[in-house]
From TrEMBL:
Entry keywords, A to Z: Iron, Metal-binding, Oxidoreductase, Vitamin C
Gene3D superfamilies: B-lactam Antibiotic, Isopenicillin N Synthase, Chain
Electron transport among keywords: no
The encoding gene: Vigan.04G187900
Protein name, UniProt field: Fe2OG dioxygenase domain-containing protein
């Protein structure tokens, strides 16, 4: 092969929008319910063991940390300390006073609800393609035997803009694309403020953090959980940790669904009106060598109401090299993770089904058997 051809191929590849991972097409859950609200096919039914009903710990919900972004961003020491504790002990916190306008959140919720109510033929115009997770459908399905989640989703890469597959951005309802753009750019601003506070409490020079996120990769996923006739038998979303740096999630106001792993049990994150739920992703766990935890979480469904949630995953760029920061390692805290190219880590994880935190093994050093960070 001549050099010219190589260069040509390279240029073509660079201009193409990258893909992330294939997923096996599966039935649309909203349609299953539409056709027969009482039916729960066997492929969705989980064992009691997997559901861990005995480990339900709703009494701890009120202890999930709540952080005031206005205080945090002006460097308030108590609030920074709260953030440190939240990242160490919970991996999750709710953010209030974030400045994202109520009207904008409402527009997002109205437009998304309208989109999911469209006939399936209309939504299928934006269906995920077989080799990638962008679009409308279900991701992380890797085998015909896998037990499926009781949810559908619309997943779009929002940044960098040249990664967008605009043909998969819904044109109905009118204005939905603009609302997605406006909402995600506001939440991006919140994410930058949180990242700046994180670099402060991680005692990391801001340029290190910014260096990994010069051209952040960002995915926006709208999760749709239809009601389920037997919610105690299914999961809306399998237990997993997020491969992101941080994730910012807006939930419906008055419906529980998100549950997080804490002290061996499952704690529901009760929605606070207008708050954003933020969680530490795998990247922060790796950077801090396990000091901050990327905590496992899942979504449950309920009998009478649908639930929609809006997750913005903020990630390093594909070429960023992620490894524990030097000052996080010492004799008591030996290095747990090896250096990974972020794009490789992400794609390796996405090729697997969501299964707790097993995917972080991709970055685990072989000799580290303590698994401190792997809670
Ligand atoms: C996710 C997620 C939780 C929820 O999208 O990664 O964890 O409550 N969502 O929808
Ligand atoms: Ni998640």
């Amino acid at each position: 092969m001549s050099l010219n051809v190589d260069v040509e191929e390279l240029v073509t590849e660079m201009e193409e929008v990258p893909t992330f991972a294939p997923s096996i097409p599966v039935p649309n859950v909203q349609e299953i319910v539409r056709n027969n609200p009482l039916q729960v096919p066997q492929r969705y039914v989980r064992s009691n063991e997997e559901l861990e009903k005995v480990n339900h710990m709703p009494h701890l919900s009120s202890e999930v940390p709540v952080i005031d972004l206005a205080l945090l961003s002006c460097g308030n020491k108590d609030e920074l300390l709260k953030l440190d504790v939240a990242c160490k002990e919970w991996g999750f916190f709710q953010i209030v006073n974030h400045g994202v306008k109520k009207e904008l959140v409402q527009k997002m919720k109205d437009a998304a609800a309208e989109f999911f109510e469209l006939p399936i033929e209309e939504k299928k115009k934006y269906a995920m393609e077989s080799n990638d997770i962008q679009g409308y459908g279900q991701a992380y399905v890797v085998s015909e035997e896998q037990i499926l989640d009781w949810s559908d989703a619309l997943m779009l890469v929002t940044c960098p803009t040249r990664y967008r597959k605009l043909r998969l951005w819904p044109k109905t309802p009118e204005g939905f694309m603009d609302v997605i753009e406006a909402y995600t750019s506001e939440v991006r601003r919140v994410s930058k403020e949180i990242q700046s506070s994180l670099s402060e409490i991680m005692e990391t020079q801001k340029h290190v953090f910014l260096g990994l996120h010069k051209e952040s990769l960002e995915g926006f996923r709208v999760n749709y959980y239809p009601p389920c006739n037997t919610p105690e038998q299914v999961l809306g979303l399998s237990p997993h940790s997020d491969t992101s740096t941080i994730t910012l999630l807006m939930q419906d106001d008055d419906i529980n669904g998100l549950e997080i792993r804490h002290k061996g049990g499952w704690v529901p994150v009760t929605p606070i009106s207008d708050a954003l739920v933020v969680n530490v992703g795998d990247v922060i766990q790796i950077l801090t060598n396990g000091r901050y935890k990327s905590v496992e979480h899942r979504a449950v469904t309920n009998k009478n109401k649908k639930r929609i949630s809006y997750a913005l995953f903020v990630c390093p760029e594909d070429d960023a090299e992620v490894e524990p920061l030097d000052h996080m390692i010492d004799a008591q805290n030996p290095k747990l993770y090896q250096k990974v190219r972020y794009g490789d880590y992400l794609r390796q994880s996405m090729k697997r089904k969501m299964e707790g935190k097993t995917h972080i093994d991709v970055a685990m050093l072989e000799h580290s058997d303590t698994r401190n960070g792997n809670n």
